[in-house]
Amino acid sequence: MGRKAIDMTGQRFGHLTVIERVGTNEERKAIWKCVCDCGNECVVRSDCLRLGRTKSCGCNEFRPLDLTGQKYGHLTVRERAGRTKDGKIAWKCVCDCGNETIVSSNNLRTGNIKSCGCGNFRKGEEKIDKRIQRIWAGMHTRCYNENVDYYKHYGGRGIKMCDEWIGENGCRHFYEWAKKNGYKDGLTIDRIDNDGNYEPSNCRWITKAEQMSNMQKSIRVSYKGKKVSPIELSELTGINLNTVYSRLKKIRKENMDIGIIDCTDWKPPK
After folding, report:
1. Mean pLDDT throughout 182-203?
2. Cα separation of 225 and 241, whole Å?
3. Which of 56, 78, 143, 228 sits at a 20 to 30 Å CA gap from 101?
4. What is the DSSP string of 170-197?
């Protein structure tokens, strides 16, 4: 009785990632369907993979297959989005639910990722609130999309989402947590520890007024050499308080390490 072949599904050899076993050849060697970093698929013997005899589909240059417009599960590919941290080709995709996400070629072609993580496509389940979807997508973008400016203040600082809130059903799990933990329309997600991750023990729902209050306590502002509060700045400059908070929030977002924000030159909008 022959020795049972080791399951190599998902393993990587050179530029090849194993998708599935497709049988044996005439020499009774196990053969595997693989996807190359260039996007092409090929069939390779297990011993050729393990011994490093075959490391790619045979392409001389790893030119990515254009996946634009193709659909994988609930994801439709829109455009190329650079490379992932580990060097894999990445694509911007739109999910059937409307959210956008960045996925590598390998995860698309092997079927590892089939949606943005919203979990909207299981029969009999309540459809996820679109506002919660947007909040979840915003967290995901801040933590994992290196192409956005504010990534450096979140993912760039090591801020992540917990395992429960990412992956195939990440948004579904986040939705269920939100519904059980005080979510209401108008509330915003807030991390209790600004250096902590997005996870149940470090997140809460607060009002915009509470968010502004937190900002007022954490942002240091000066006007004509004097330390002032956002409320005092509004009174001194004649700028609407909401506008003051919006400007300060934008400055803080662009530079999380900024010290005192000098607002001496601020003037009311005409």
Report:
1. 90
2. 20
3. 56
4. HHHHHHHHHHHTT--TT-EEEESSTTS-
